[in-house]
Structure formats: C-alpha cells, structure tokens
Design brief:
GO molecular function, one term: transmembrane transporter activity
CATH architecture: Up-down Bundle
CATH class: Mainly Alpha
Number of domains: 1
Radius of gyration: 21 Å
Helix content: over 70%
Shape: globular
Subcellular location: Cell membrane
Main location: membrane
Largest sheet: none
Membrane topology: Multi-pass membrane protein
Keywords: Cell membrane, Membrane, Transmembrane, Transmembrane helix, Transport
Order of helices and strands: HHHHHHHHHHHHHHHHHH
Oligomer: single chain
Length: 477
Amino acid sequence: MSLDTEKTQVTGRRWWTLAVVSAAQLLVVLDGTIVNIALPSAQESLGMADGGRHWVITAYALTFGGLLLIGGRVSGVLGHRRAFITGLLGFAAASVLGGAAGSPELLFGARALQGAFAALLAPAGLSLLATTFTGSDRGRAFGVFAAVGAAGSAVGLIAGGLLTEYAGWRWCLYVNAPIALLAALGAALVPAGRAIPDRGRLDVGGALLSLAGFAALVYGFARAESLGWGSVQVWTLLAGGLGLLAAFVVVESRVARPLLPMHVLRHRVRAAAFVAVTLLFVAMFGFYLFMSYYTQTVLGYSPAQAGLTLIVNSAAAVVGSVLVAGRLYGRGRPAALIVPGLLAAAAGTLLLTQLRADTSHVLALYLLPAMALTGLGLGCVLSPTAGMATEGMRGHDVGAASAAYNAAQQVGAALGTALLNTVAAAATAAFAGPGAAAAVVHGYTAALTVGGVILLAAAALTALLLGSHRHAPSAPS
C-alpha cells in the first residue's frame, strides 16, 4: 500500500469518526427537547397525573447530569470507542422501552435509562473527537460537532411537533433506535484507540458525591417550576446539592486518582469555556420554551408549525458553527468568537422583549431575526468552547473534561428552564392590564429580558477570563 493511499484512508476514517459522533450528539441533544411537545399527548394516553408528568423530563435530566462524571471515567477505562458503542446500544434499547410503555412508571424508568446511557455516550463521543483531530482540522471538526449540538434542540422541537401530529407521541422515542443502531454500526470503522489503565481503586466517594450533588441540583431546579422559589423543599435540595458538590471538590483535591482532577477546572481558559456554555444554556433553554409556548398559545400554531418556525434557528446555528467558528477557531483569540456569539444571542433574545399580544407582522419583524441571531450566537459559542474544554487533555483527563463540559450544559439547561419559567409565571400573575393573552406575553417578555441580561453578563465574564489568550490550554505536565 502506498503512503498516499494509507494517508487517504486515515483521513477518511477521521472524518467518518466525526459523522458517527455527530449522529450520537444529535440523539443526546435532541432527546432533551423532542419529548417536550409530545408530553401533553403522552399524558393523555397514559393517564398521567399533572403532578407527576414532569418526571418524563426530570428522570432523563437527573440520570444524565448525575452520572456524567462517572461516565467520563468509565469511557477511559473501557476505551472511548467501546464505551461509545455501549452507550448507543443502551440508548436505543431504552428508547424502544419508553415508546412501548403502557404506564407512566415504565415511561419514567425508560427515560431514566436513556439519561444513564447518554451520560456514557456524550463524554465518550466528545473524547473520540478530542483524541482524533488536531491542527487545522480540529476547528472544522468541532464546528460540525457544535452545529449538530446547537441545532439539536431546535430539531427536537421540530421533530417532536411533526411526529406527535402525524405519527403519535411514541415515535418521539422510537425514532432514536434506528439512528442509534446505524451510528453503532458506523462506529465499527472508527479507530479503536486503547483503554487507559486505571490502576488503583475507583474514587467511590467522589462518584457518590458527584451523583448526589448534581442530582439534587437538577431536581431542585425542576421542582422550582411547580413549587416556586419560596419552597423549603426547593432550597433544601439546592443547598444540599451545593454542599455535596463542595464536599466533592474537597475529596477530589485529596485522593490519589480523582474522578475529576482539579487542574481540569483551574485553568482560566477552560473555566471560561465552562462559564460561557453554562450561562448560554441558562438563557437559551428558556428561549426555546417560550418560543414553543408563544407560537402555540398566542399565535395559534399547531405543534408542527411551532416546530417549523425554528428551522431558521437551526440553519443559523450551522452557519455559525461551520462557516464562522469552524474556519476561524485557532486562528486568533477565542474571545473574538465567543464574546460576539454571546452578544448576538443576547440581541436576538432582547429583540423579543418588544413583543405584545397584538404585535403585527410578528414573524418577519421579530421571530425570524431573533431566530437567526440566537442560532448564529449558539454556533459561534459551542464550537470553540467544546474545543477549549478538551484541548491539551491526556489520558483520563479527556473523559473528565468532556464529562464536565456536558455537565455544565445540563446544569445550565435545568436552571434556565426553572428560573425563567418562574419569572414568566410571576410576571404574568402581577400583570395589571386587560386581557389574558397580554398577561401571558408580558410574562414571556419579562423572562426573556432576564435571559438577555444573563447572556450579556456571560459575555462580560468570558471576556474577563479569556483576556488576551490566543490559544486553548495546553496539557498539564
């Protein structure tokens, strides 16, 4: 075999790795939103009580967020490709189980299983990319990966609307299985790499503290939606979660083989990536929630029409990730991509604060520009932050950094949904003007104002942390 032929095959396998990992990333992100639109139909079909329906969303978020750091370590021990395939097959089986559920309890359990396998799948996929791509190709690879992640939430709402309206809510779960199985078959062509020896005992204390801490935070945010921020239960969960995570940091700084080495978090550039992506998800998950509600309850769109309005957001996210960030990442300061991206998302969010119940030409003047700006911002932020979170990591640190990056997204999404939904509900209740629709829209615009301010704060913090750094962090010695 000639050197050129061998080089072509290696390059082809690298880009095949990107395609397979991107398909898996679509599954993980899409599943965070695809069930949202299907939830009313599932509730009616299974006779689900109003007080328990949130478990369809919460069960997935709890196991996904709680097990991510453990999944990152397991990925290194098994080998990233083996862990990746295991996660895909488990995710497919859990999706079929959920689609066939005949009771609420079985659906809740299936969603928890999906989250558990996603917690293995997500860090394994990001680790495969981080160890496969270097140099100029790294920016393009992470651009495509980020485009899938940025568009995935919107695609989930689109797919959820179409499937619920034309095929039934169960297909919002069944659709995962063929995608996961095809990706698992494709993973056979991904270079295997090697498992990383893990001599010594597992950091059991760190594993339990991280699981309990993240689960308490995510569940506390979820309960804040229904119980309100004045609830003793909510604050007990949040305080307990923060206390457990503080204890986790103490344990990790003292054990010989930590689940999450502290140097992964201590570098300013990597910390900037975590801050930017966490606050981005706080604002954007609220944005998607209110766009879904506004288009359906105020404009009267069907679930399918509501989902299709997000196509512009998905297209803009692809442009931002691939054509902008994918080409420019690594050529200058990371702040030159991330800060403008956060400002663009803030502009799109704040534009919608001008909405009123009787706004005319709402699609052309407000929705489409806002979708374009937020999508572009998402793409410009997710691509460089994913690269920065894993740049220079070696051994188990790759899985740990990948897991921490995904955990930051999950915590941000849970906090954003709960916080902004509570702001909207309080503003709606306090509205003194006439008309129920006007009160609802006032609540949405109040929450979007908070989301926009959070994005502006994220831009300022990120600029401060990144300063004049031109490159992502290097590997620790």
